[in-house]
Amino acid sequence: MRRHATLLATAIALAGCGSSDITGGTSGLTPPSNLTYQLVPSGDPTTPESIVLRWDPVDDARVTNYVVYSRGSSGEQWSRRAETTSASFNDLGAPDYQYQVASESGDGSESAPSNTVTVDESNTLIAPGTLSSISLDQAVWLTWPADARLDAPNLFDYYRVYSTPYDLDQNLCDVNWVLEGTTVSEDFLASGLPNGQPRCFAVSAISFDGHESDWTTPRADTPRPDARNVLLFASQVDVATSGFSFYVPSSGALGVVLPGNRSDIDFRVDRHGDGSIWLVPVRSGTVLALYSSDPLTDLTSIDIAPPDDEFSTGAIEAVPGYGYVFRTLVAGQYHYAGLRVTNVSRDYIIVDWSYQRDPGNPELSIGGR
């Protein structure tokens, strides 16, 4: 009777462990060591693409494979997750709270468990700050403050940059975001983009173990053609090289120096009797505005075109360092163009220019005046 009672008590104890407990440790097999994890970001901060577990391979001839265990909380029993013959495991989808790994022999015996890794949500970084951009020729340069990195420098690993098409008329970003790339610095050049096609951009911060932060507020921008150091003579000096068109409809050419006596150019360069040089709108529908009352450091400082009431058909003096914006009418649609005067002499000027091919889009460079 005593023997029967002893066997019954043993059976109850084993049943209490359950099949989801790690019961190894008495087989003498060498357990795995140095178990680590790395989340694989998906673009959704709440759900990574997967979690990758890695551990040191066991140097024990009896070991045929490894068994991965996980649980949803520290109070739950361990659940047998998978078996693998390699010293790593990629668990797709949302990860569990904790993981362990055990060695297994051909007869099903298991070793004691490895160390436990805990997927620590507190490692998630804050979202990067306000995203800024500069429109370039077939590219957009993005920049943002370093607050996410500086808030937890020991956790920070890198940034992910995303983009998607932008509907300018509806002021909406498309839902089909794609990964543009990654960077460890607070800037990124998105290149190889079609000019005149608006896109939304957003950035997230990734911790050393793969947690992804919330995204920045999306930023819309549109690449546009530009060029530097274009020489234009005053019409009184050389009429053949005194005119300029940002876009020539008949050929599709951009930024063309033309004779200043043509009626289909956007503007002409004139010299007044006092020696000053002036920009004169020419084509019907082309109007001009001074961009700002202060000099600009670069062409890319010209961002959003001024309001319509600041444009006129009147000429404006060309002054070194100053920026100007043209609004042109092509095939019944408005297009905006930026111009920065870099040099002025008595006979000629040198300019940088940009042109927005997207009709009605006032964005020429870094947004938000």
Task: Walk me through what this model shows.
With 369 residues, the chain is mainly beta. The protein has 3 domains: 23-119, Immunoglobulins (Immunoglobulin-like, Sandwich), CATH 2.60.40.10; 132-221, Immunoglobulins (Immunoglobulin-like, Sandwich), CATH 2.60.40; 226-355. Helix content is 6%, strand content 42%. It contains 2 helices and 25 strands. Strands 10, 11, 12, 14 and 15 form a 5-stranded antiparallel sheet that branches. Strands 16-25-24-23-21 form a 5-stranded antiparallel sheet, with no helix packed on it. It has a 5-stranded antiparallel sheet with strand order 18-17-19-20-22, with no helix packed on it. A hairpin with a 3-residue loop joins strand 24 and strand 25 (348-355). Residues 1-20 have low confidence and may be disordered.
Mean of residue pLDDT? 91
Calculate the terminal CA-CA distance, rounded to whole Å: 91 Å
Low-confidence segments, given as residue ranges, are: 1-20
**How big a fraction of the residues is strand?**
35-45%
- The number of helical segments is 2
